[in-house]
């Protein structure tokens, strides 16, 4: 017999990365969360949870969490028939969230179809949320689909290395090269953002920087570069207007940086998932 209460406890521990928070989320005691998981593990004779931070499901745990997701999806179908708006969980990279995905958020049909729960993370990490059963779909830079899932190419996010006119005059009067780039302040999203470093290493053999500004939001990142805090990579779709008005200068226009983006989701798609996916794919045509 499958203990779905235990599986929901397992899912909550992985989602919240805490037995205490998991207990609060599902409305039982912390000891009850532990007991439910342990009892089902004893019944199966196999471990479901790797009990060290970060908490992850074992191979067996992942199999049962996928089963839970299927059962939950069927439950949601029944809820839809009763006019209960289903919850859709999405893991998405921040540039997508703050750029073309805004079209999805502005669509009344989507708003009247689903309740959204969004997790924002780097495009290299989002697929892990789908693997662990924390979300229903994700946007990832990884192409390969998970078992029983599909992978749809949304397009490529194209980045270009830019800075403000004043910044260019101050730091690049002798040209854009390894030396001038190393001495000029750089802007990165956060300590996990390696896109700028990969680009500069590949094109300029550069791996040391005099100063790095951390700007952990898409609007602040762009504003910091416009304001002269530093140079960095920005999506072309976000700066078309600034480039036309010559408020920004492309430092290396012949060598832009491209990141492919894929929509990953379970092959079995309910009606609300189909509606959401169609809107998302349409919005991504801006890429």
Automatic annotation (TrEMBL):
GO terms for molecular function: DNA binding; DNA-binding transcription factor activity. SUPFAM superfamilies: Periplasmic binding protein-like II, Winged helix' DNA-binding domain. Residues 2-60 form the HTH lysR-type domain. InterPro entries: LTTR, LysR_HTH_N, LysR_subst-bd, WH-like_DNA-bd_sf, WH_DNA-bd_sf. It comes from the Bacteria. It holds the Pfam family LysR_substrate. The keyword DNA-binding applies. The keyword Ligase does not apply. Keywords: DNA-binding, Transcription, Transcription regulation. Belongs to the LysR transcriptional regulatory family. PANTHER family: HTH-TYPE TRANSCRIPTIONAL REGULATOR ARGP, TRANSCRIPTIONAL REGULATOR. This is LysR-family transcriptional regulator. The lineage of its organism: Bacteria, Pseudomonadati, Bdellovibrionota, Bacteriovoracia, Bacteriovoracales.
